[in-house]
Sequence to fold (110 residues):
Amino acid sequence: MSLTATEIYHPLEYRHGPISVVDERSLIVMLYHPDTREEEERLVKELSSLGAFVIGFGGAGDLSLLLDGPVEWRGLVCLPALQLLGVQLAQLRGLDATAPRHLTKVVKIG
Fold:
């Protein structure tokens, strides 16, 4: 909705390449897992030191949001906040998030 290129990585894969493109223009959303929180927090410190702004769901970040409840629900709990982030970014760019370009409500084949 905001015409923003995004990529997803397992947090512990960051040091295998993706970290090379992190800078002050990077926004990183970290969805922490309780079992690997310590390692993920070390990574967040490193990403922040490279200039990235980090949103931490369930752990440290420039913006930290507490997550309660079962681990299995964490992604679902974060979804509304990420949706709002996308809408706000689209509005900042002067885009209509309700009418994405090149998309229609119905896909016609043939």
Remarks:
- The longest strand covers residues 27-31.
- The mean pLDDT is 90.
